[in-house]
Structure formats: structure tokens, C-alpha cells
Write a structure and sequence with these properties.
This protein is an alpha/beta fold and 208 residues long. It has 11 helices and 7 strands. Helix content is 44%, strand content 15%. The strands form 2 sheets. It has a 5-stranded parallel β-sheet with strand order 5-4-1-6-7, with helices on both faces. Keywords: Hydrolase.
Length: 208
Amino acid sequence: MTTTLTPGAADALLFDLGRVVIDFDLARTLKAWAVELGSDPSAMMTALARNDTFHRYETGHVTDAEFFAAVREALRLELSDDQLREGWNAIFIGEMPGIAPLLERAARHLPLYALSNTNDAHIAHFSEHFAELLKPFRELFLSSRIGMRKPNAAAYDHVVRAIGVRPERIVFFDDLAENIAAARVRGLQAVHVRSSADVAQALDQLGL
């Protein structure tokens, strides 16, 4: 389902961070950990997903040390917490091509916010290394800090209340279809982002 926006249809813009603002690749982390990649790097993390350690880490219920212990066990690694943290943060590639000027352009007209599923180790890293890129945002709603994550309805409701704008007047940008669908259920307008061109098109439609 494609979202068609109209000029003046938004009072706030809400962005996911990963693969919308900041690019990342799990294969970089697994390579840093010297894990055999195989044909599907993401499959290496399924053991963590099954026992919900990763989700609990992203909602602030598991510490860095507890998460790294789970990684160590699931992937049979003999690395220190510092080595695991360094590899974990190697996931970041850089800013999504073309997104910085779009954020600056949008921020001249509307307040920008972010809603991202993330964790304390990544927050510490991107807050330092991407500080300039994140300057246009008025507030970041980060899952490990707010205790809830997408696509759970509570995460969207929390952000809508905090922003203080009716959900139908918020445009949400995310790269995952399940997060887009959940946002629409909660009343937000939502744009599925495959590249920064999708963000640019949405801004054009909004007349920004």
C-alpha cells in the first residue's frame, strides 16, 4: 500500500533511524566477530531472537553484559565484552546517502522526531559518531530508553502522546513493512522507505 500525501497534511515528522537515517549491515558485525558468514548473515542471530534476549535488550531489560553473554553462548565465541562491543558497533556504515540535506530541509518547516528500536551500546556509539546528522531532531524516542519497541502499539501511542500531535497529523518513515502497517493501525500516516528518494518524494508531496 502506497501512501499519497498532500500539502499541509502533517504537523510533525517521525523517522526510524536504521536504514532510514543511518545505514547498517549486520554482516559487518559478524565479520568483526570472525563469525563464518555463510549465505545468510542474519541467520546467525536467530538463536538470540528465539529466546527473546535481543528484544529484551532493545527494551532496556537486559544489560550490555547480559546481552554479550548471550551472544557469546549463541555464537560460541571467546571474545571479551569490549571486543564484542567493538564488533557490535561495527554494524554502522554511515549516513544513508542523501538523507542529511532532506532532514535539514524538512526541519525548516516541521519538527522532526525519531522512533527507533535500538540498545544502549548502539545509542552511545551513534550519539557520538552521528551527532551532526541527528541535530535536526527535536527528540529521539529510543526503545531501550522508553521500554517499548516497534511494532508494538504501545510504542506508537507513547510517541504520539509525547509529541502532542494527533496521530493522523504525523508522517512516519520506516524501512520495515511490519512497522509501517502497525503505525497505520495506530492512525499515523506512514511511508515505506527503501532509499532516501522515498523521503524526498514524501517531502515534495507535503509541499516542504
